[in-house]
Amino acid sequence: MDEWMQVTVLTTTQGAELISELLMERGSEGTMIEDRNDVFANQRPEGQWDIIDEAIAERIGEDVKVTGYYPLDERFADTLSEIRAAVERLRAEESDLPLGKLEIVTNDFENENWAESWKKSFQPVRLGAHFVVKPGWAQTELEAGDHVIEIDPGMAFGTGTHETTAMCTALVEKYVQPEQTVIDIGTGSGILAIAAAHMGAKRVLATDLDAVAVRVAQENVEINGFAHVIETRCGDLLQVVHEAGDVVIANIIADVIIGLAQPVRSVIAPNGVFICSGIAIDRREDVRRALAEADFDVLEAPVKGEWSAFAARKRF
């Protein structure tokens, strides 16, 4: 048995990705983020929980917990000192951000070949007909015409395993054509923007209100070799988008999509397609009604599990 140490930093939703990056820079091969806001708000449909569970939220508690994993060897004391120093630098450098307690908690455990076991838990995922989402270290057999998207666990905002992302990716695969311009609203990890680039889009604009999400998306764009196609921007749709897309994607939540249905028309080209997902099935008809009122014709409305999606064409 190998001995390992868990190092957990107590922070906030805003600080989680910064802490995750800090822990991985100091040798953790991955991190686990536990955030009760993901349970209550479900703001990122591709997040960890498909169904809101208040018991999980109670177990997590008020603090956001970011945990890294390190071998308990002669180097660990120095590693822990480096982590403590880095956390203090972050506290000073990011004083304008609400980073929470930034307390560090350690817990040792035994696990044979933990690092390899952790990696094995993240297997490649097939989305649509020809997309394979996988961590950078994973090997997988590809079929003719497959497109690989590399997204490593430990990064915030989803790795493509949620039903909403799966449906959205399939719709991107169907409706994005070569040489088109695509806008991805609420890009998160950037997975859908990357999928659009794989389909031959000549330009993709990926936006998000969350600066950390934009940074993560940009990293993923570069890892996947599409920096020349995909531009990331931080901000609200109507503030940062001033051009029209042939396809606009929004994998968010029902209320946001309902609010977007009318204003999004201004950034969709004539006869362009609006792909939206992240819609709980009991809000499906509310979204359908909002799309109709905004002069969209629904092309298809797939359902997967407890979630639904739409592809709709701008009427005129």
Describe what this molecule looks like in 3D.
This protein has helices at residues 16-25, 36-40, 54-60, 76-93, 114-120, 163-175, 191-198, 211-223, 237-240, 254-260, 284-293; strands spanning 3-11, 31-34, 64-71, 103-110, 125-127, 131-134, 147-150, 181-185, 203-208, 230-234, 245-251, 268-280, 296-300, 303-304, 307-314. It folds into two domains: 3-119, Alpha-Beta Plaits; 125-314, 3-Layer(aba) Sandwich (Rossmann fold). Strands 8, 9, 10, 11, 12, 13, 14 and 15 form an eight-stranded mixed sheet that branches. Strands 2-3-1-4 form a four-stranded antiparallel sheet, covered by helices on one side. It is built from eleven helices and 15 strands. The chain is globular and about 65 Å long. Helix 6 runs parallel beside helix 7 (191-198) and helix 10 runs parallel beside helix 11 (284-293). By secondary structure, it is α/β, with parallel strands linked by helices.
What is the number of helices?
Answer: 11
* Outline type: globular
Q: What is the CATH domain class of the largest domain?
A: Alpha Beta
How many individual domains? 2
Tally the beta strands: 15
**End-to-end gap:** 65 Å
**How large is the share of residues in beta strands?**
25-35%
Unreliable stretches (pLDDT < 50, length at least 5) are 39-60, 155-161
Structural class, by secondary structure, is alpha/beta
Largest sheet: 8 strands, mixed
- Summed over residues and divided by their number, the pLDDT gives a mean of 84
Helicity range? 25-40%
Can you identify the CATH superfamily of the largest domain?
Vaccinia Virus protein VP39
CATH topology of the largest domain: Rossmann fold
| N-to-C SSE string, H for helix and E for strand | EHEHHEHEHEEEHEHEHEHEHEHEEE
CATH architecture of the largest domain: 3-Layer(aba) Sandwich
User: Cα-atom Rg, whole angstroms?
Assistant: 20 Å
